[in-house]
Amino acid sequence: MIDLNGQIPDLKGMSAEELGDLCDTLRSKIVDTVMRNGGHLSSNLGMVELTVALHYVFDFPKDKLIFDVGHQCYTHKLLTGRADRFSTLRKLGGISGFPKREESVYDCYNTGHAGTSISAALGIAKARDIKGEDFSVIAVIGDGSFNNGLVYEAFNSVSQINSNILIIINDNHMSISPTVGSMHEYLEELSAESEQRAKRKRHETIFERFGLSYDGVYDGNDLGCMIQKLTAIKAELKKRPIILHVVTKKGKGYLYCEENPQETHGISAGQAVSTEYSAVLGNTLTRMAEEDGRIVAVTAAMTPSLGLSQFFERYPERSIDVGICESHAAVVCAGLATEGMRPYYAVYSTFLQRAFDEVVVDICSQDLPVTLCIDRAGISGSDGETHQGEFDLSFLSLIPNLTIAVPKDTDEFCRMLRASASFGHPLAIRYPKDGFETFGGGDLQFGRWEKLREGGDCAIIACGERMISLALEAARRAAESGIECAVVNARFVKPLDRDMLDSLGQRCVVTMEDNALIGGLGSMVDGYYSLSGKLIKNFAYPDEFIPHGSVGELIKKYGISVDAVCRYIIANAHR
């Protein structure tokens, strides 16, 4: 086994046997680390040979390498002087699970969402040409990302921008869900062994019409083949932009990963027993669909992660996976709703950002009964800045006609879903990945909050399970110091429950939310109470991007802890 000691290995000086040993070492290192820390496993195992070949042939960091999405960059990190820190992968203060310019000169572009790599590569290459510099620019993009509309906007600009780049299609037939759509079927036809060579040759011209020279299909896990092919292409890049089509095996080298690519796409580190909100979503929507033929589930290439596998199996005619096309999914939901259906669009908070315009114009301006089921809202943890769900309350709260709900636990989430079918207007329900507690409570009425604890000295207004749990504990501790706090479940951030706000006679008010401060619950409460003379303190995330780390570590790091809230209440409740 090759010793990865944190130095940058001299790949160009290695024999074929040594390079093979290096690939084995890289795989073992990735598996060992991901099983301890969590992370993306099968996608990285499939990328080992291709990444080693790229580093053997090209001259990084002079040449520029951009990974679409970016979660398949582990081999790249191990080869660029970060092997000695790889044990800190996705840990607070450790290295990121995605490319990060702040981390290394070898990471030339930060990625985290699909479809951006080709546009970024064109921009970098154009800057190179304007400055008269000489280096290669490579974008590595998976077949799943090929569903994303940004890719075709970039293709449309290849001839116009007129800068040579290499686009490598890493075709492993998978994103998080099995890849869907016409372009996937097209790539399948290109990569299939077929006697219809003339037909395949005609199909290849689709890329040439965009100004790209197509070369494929090759085995991306054949290291020798990849080195030979990339060496030839490196010289050709001086003349024209090229698209190289390779097929890799997701999970390569580890049988369980190869046979279970969906289950091993993302691995979670060990944690306390919990109920995932996604499981509640899937079970509840499936039961609702038995009674209501209008229920339709829509997702953007995230079916199993969002808990919808059972629904898709039972009601395929009412199940829509559009691939990695979040904006498109929102408009499909709007179209469904105009014809009397009740669409439920399940999406991670971080990916909903990509559909903001469509939520505003297509769903909310038409006041359509679309329910946005926003998973991984708030701090999502170890995937870092591009995946934290800290903005949805802020960017959704400004949209007219939209009601925003934040359940305090999985039971309340289930009740919100059931009530949503007859609501008749746009609705967003945001929730974290895991549910650990249930708090009980009375009837659910849209726009109405509930008081979970009485207390005359201070009012704590909190939304979401994480913050409700912290608020109740802070109130309990404050009571030990003789200060009684009311705890209010602000389960509807929009509209605010004005009657509840008017009824709170406490001068000291604290707000708590798993969201950025600007534009969130605290900002809205501040505005409502602006002339009241109340003493208000908002506990939320500051105006910055939140790095990777565990949820608990990050909440504490940014001052939203029981200790911090309790200290403030004790110091200010009687002012």
Task: Give short descriptive properties of this protein.
seven-stranded mixed sheet, Rossmann fold, five-stranded parallel sheet, 575 residues, alpha/beta, 23 helices, 21 strands, globular
Overall mean pLDDT stands at 90
CATH class of the largest domain: Alpha Beta
Helix content: 25-40%
CATH superfamily name of the largest domain? Thiamin diphosphate (ThDP)-binding fold, Pyr/PP domains
Distance between the termini: 66 Å
- Rg is 26 Å
Q: What would you call the structural class?
A: alpha/beta
List low-confidence stretches. none
Biggest sheet overview: 7 strands, mixed
User: What is the tally of helical segments?
Assistant: 23
The CATH architecture of the largest domain would be 3-Layer(aba) Sandwich
Give the domain tally: 3
**Arrangement of strands in the largest sheet:** 10-9-11-12-14-13-19
Strand residue content:
15-25%
Number of strands: 21
Any idea what the shape is? globular
CATH fold title of the largest domain? Rossmann fold
